[in-house]
Amino acid sequence: xxxxxxxxFCCSVIAGLLAGCATSVDNLAINYHADLVAQQVNEQSxxxxxxxxxxxxxxxxxxxxxxxxxxxxxxxxxxxxxxxxVTLPLSxxxxxxxxxxxxxxxxxxxxxxLVGHAHYxxxxxxxxxxxxxMPEATAVGSTTMTNIVTAVIDDARLLDITEHAxxxxxxxxxxxxxxxxxxxxxxxxxxxxxxxxxxxxxGKYEDALTELPSTAYGWKxxxxxxxxxxxxxxxxxxxxxxxxxxAASNSPDGLMPVMADSKVNSKAVDMxxxxxxxFHQVDDYPEAILQQTQPRxxxxxxxxxxxxNNSFDNNSVDNQNKPxxxxxxxxxxxxxxxxxxxxxxxxxxxxxxPFSWIQAY
Length: 361
What we know:
Layout: H1 2-18, H2 35-48, E1 53-59, E2 62-67, E3 70-74, H3 83-87, H4 96-102, E4 112-114, H5 120-123, H6 126-132, E5 138-141, H7 143-149, E6 158-160, E7 175-176, E8 182-188, E9 225-232, E10 238-244, E11 271-275, H8 287-293, E12 297-301, H9 332-342, E13 348-350, E14 357-359
């Protein structure tokens, strides 16, 4: 009974705190690089035989990485339930019509879907996408993730990365795609509290579910992971390295282990993909990640308001006239200023609009 009362109290507090307006982003430089332009660039590079890496932001923690003819994706979130449905909690489920509309056609060839944690805004759309659009893709994530998704997806298409993950300075194990052109290593990380030091929707599933959760609180966090993603040359040496997070974390959680690559002492990080949401609830974020990785490109993700925010259309060449607001209770400008203080002088910072493309350099 006490736990029920506490959950009701937490829901009420969260609803009250989040019910205010989303954060204005009118003063921020948002990247609206159009889908069509990036696709033309990628097609030209394939015709010339020169493999390029193009990255499309899908919103929240979702990214599509296209590398020549191969691709990999982090868990996309297109269904954005309203605030009341999430906090009370009421029933939520994937908006399958919206997923059908917004999932880019070129995403369907991705071999893996990397899941950082199992909250609804990262995982809820994934089972439907795997069933209807990506019948050969493998979902990668925590034990909790696999125990949720196994309710509707065969275990052969789920990879529990618990034994593969780096932990502190102990390196993990690389996982390769079928063509040995992409590899990734999970890193044990954590998820920032949501407000006032309180983390909601935490917990884990030790046993397999027989049906998918029906409320936001059923999509438990599980163990959170960051990822190092490498794109490889024909000698299977890393030529482009990305450090990816879909949740802000307290240092040293999420930091890269010391890694030595064959034929080279260590491959530098070219791009760090960060999480803006709830960054102020943890210490030394994003400073610790950026000071360690010193990337040339810094991408700020999970920055937009994701409650009832389905206004973007990936079929539009120009999304600049589409309304977009920032995630609630978060000072995005402060995050950007903190990035500017610690980034290297030649590093570029990108705040991508949903469905915009990010050129890798």
